[in-house]
């Protein structure tokens, strides 16, 4: 039951993008087309899950027993960078079109603050190994949800008669703001 | 103090080493074999991913060219220059190709074409207007003025003029044909840049209707076709030029001035001396 709550809290209530405002860069950058946005979300989910597993292990088996919690940031960034490299190789091998569609944003997952945020939150909230994984998957799904909704809206927005000064980035940011506002409605649903 | 430092350094070093080995193994296992020529050709290509060659993008074209699935001059955007470079890389000779440009074959702008009694209000794109009600203009064959072709152009080679008609900037046009596909009425066609005679109308309405709805429509009078030796024919109330039969001798005979609506016209008129030399 608790895992269930952690999952939905990460997806809806404490959505990484729309309530913590982490990972805004790909959220705006790759949300032009629904298909590539969804793929980006899936890649991020994959990296987040792996990150949750590996950082938890490193944090609890190496860093904390040796009183080296101060190395968290450096170690986590090292882990994330390596994992992203791995995912990049994996995607290049399995799906060339997806590799090209994601382009620069794939290496940019490295510096996606949502992922470093995830690793630090797991430590901050003192989650167990299983809880950490669920939190990672939930965070990834939440990110996918947010970026997919955004991409869906932006695809429709292309056909809309937007006033000239608002076209492009301004209307995108306004939409992101309204989306965040809508997601604020979930706060209080679950308190974890 | 020193011990903590050593532990910290060795931990980070160990982690780094571990991930380095992990990535090295992954790199070996997941390596994608790639012909180095593909990357080189990809760099030569324009990189607009317009799809005019029929491939999914410039990279797909490079792969196809290396495998022999497409000719070296298959990129209409890059033209001869790119074809030469690719041929050099592949070690074959390039065939020359004439540059193609997009021509807008409708001159019924806001000034010339009659408006409908009703006014169209809705999304401004051509494709939508065409499906919904046929747009604002009374002519069902003419330009809708929504600018779908301008939006489709990946090279900024088109713009809408004050009269509500698209204009092709020849210097920028690469002949990729995206605008041709975007136009729901088939007004835009690709032609060799040297071709200068066109019928600037696509209306297949009967002469009376054509005349009523547009000042510059082809009214199928047949004056242009009479002495053309079959190069111009009236098909479905419209003068159609058969470019395989059309040449400069015929161009000299056609009475462009006599066309009552100036629907058939030349984009540029060659000087008398030039024609004589040729």
Summarize the structure.
Chain A has helices at residues 2-13, 24-29, 34-63, 72-94, 96-102, 105-108, 113-124, 129-157, 169-184. With 192 residues, chain A is an all-alpha fold. Chain A has one domain.
Explained architecture:
The complex is a heterodimer of chains A (192) and B (278). Chain A is 72% helix and 0% strand. Chain A contains nine helices and no strands. In chain A, helix 3 (34-63) runs parallel beside helix 7 and helix 3 (34-63) runs antiparallel to helix 8 (129-157). By secondary structure, chain B is an alpha+beta fold. Chain B has three domains: 36-90, 3-methyladenine DNA Glycosylase II, Chain A, domain 3 (Orthogonal Bundle), CATH 1.10.15.40; 102-189, Alpha-Beta Plaits; 195-278, no CATH class. Chain B has helices at 2-29, 36-44, 58-67, 79-90, 126-132, 148-152, 178-182, 207-213, 248-253, 272-277, and strands spanning 100-104, 158-160, 166-168, 188-192, 197-199, 232-235, 238-241, 264-266. Mean pLDDT of chain B is 83; it is low at 271-278. The A-B interface holds A 58, 62-63, 66-68, 71, 74-75, 78-79, 82, 85-86, 89-90, 92-93, 97, 100, 159, 161 and B 4, 7-8, 11-12, 15-16, 19, 22-23, 26-27, 30-32, 56-57, 59, 123-125.
> What global shape of chain A is seen?
globular
- Share of residues in helices of chain B: 25-40%
Low-confidence stretches of chain A: none
Using the 3D structure, state the CATH architecture of the largest domain in chain B. Answer: 2-Layer Sandwich
């Amino acid at each position: 039951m608790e895992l269930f709550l952690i999952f939905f809290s990460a997806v809806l209530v404490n959505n990484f993008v729309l309530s913590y405002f982490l990972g805004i860069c790909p959220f705006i950058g790759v949300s032009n087309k629904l298909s590539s946005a969804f793929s980006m979300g899936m890649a991020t989910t994959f990296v987040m899950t792996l990150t949750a597993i590996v950082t938890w292990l490193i944090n609890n088996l190496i860093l904390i027993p040796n009183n080296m919690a101060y190395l968290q940031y450096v170690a986590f960034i090292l882990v994330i960078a390596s994992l992203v490299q791995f995912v990049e190789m994996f995607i290049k091998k399995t799906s060339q079109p997806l590799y090209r569609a994601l382009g620069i944003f794939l290496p940019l997952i490295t510096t996606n603050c949502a992922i470093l945020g995830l690793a630090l939150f797991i430590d901050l909230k003192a989650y167990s190994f299983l809880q950490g994984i669920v939190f990672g998957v939930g965070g990834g799904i939440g990110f996918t949800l947010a970026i997919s909704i955004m991409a869906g809206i932006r695809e429709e927005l292309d056909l809309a008669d937007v006033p000239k000064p608002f076209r492009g980035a301004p209307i995108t940011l306004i939409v992101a703001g309204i989306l965040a506002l809508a997601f604020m409605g979930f706060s209080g649903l679950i308190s974890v | 103090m020193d011990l903590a430092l050593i532990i910290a350094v060795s931990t980070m070093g160990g982690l780094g080493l571990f991930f380095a080995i992990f990535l090295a193994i992954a790199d070996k296992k997941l390596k994608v074999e790639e012909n180095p020529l593909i990357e080189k050709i990809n760099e030569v290509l324009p990189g607009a991913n317009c799809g005019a060659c029929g491939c999914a993008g410039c990279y797909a074209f490079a792969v196809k060219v290396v495998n022999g699935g497409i000719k070296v001059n298959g990129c209409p955007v890059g033209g001869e220059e790119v074809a030469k470079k690719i041929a050099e890389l592949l070690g074959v000779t390039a065939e020359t190709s004439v540059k193609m440009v997009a021509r807008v074959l409708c001159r019924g702008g806001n000034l010339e074409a009659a408006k409908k009694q009703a006014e169209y209000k809705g999304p401004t794109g051509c494709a939508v207007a065409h499906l919904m009600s046929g747009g604002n203009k009374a002519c069902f064959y003419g330009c809708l003025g929504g600018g779908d072709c301008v939006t489709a152009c990946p090279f900024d080679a088109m713009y809408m003029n004050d009269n509500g008609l698209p204009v092709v900037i020849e210097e920028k046009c690469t002949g990729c044909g995206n605008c041709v596909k975007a136009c729901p009425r088939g007004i835009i066609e690709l032609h060799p840049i040297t071709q200068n005679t066109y019928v600037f109308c696509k209306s297949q309405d009967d002469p009376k209707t054509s005349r009523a709805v547009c000042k510059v429509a082809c009214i199928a009078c047949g004056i242009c076709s009479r002495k053309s030796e079959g190069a111009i024919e009236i098909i479905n109330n419209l003068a159609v030029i058969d470019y395989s039969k059309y040449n400069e001798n015929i161009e000299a005979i056609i009475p462009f001035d006599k066309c009552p609506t100036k629907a058939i016209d030349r984009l540029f008129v060659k000087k008398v001396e030039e024609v004589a030399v040729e």
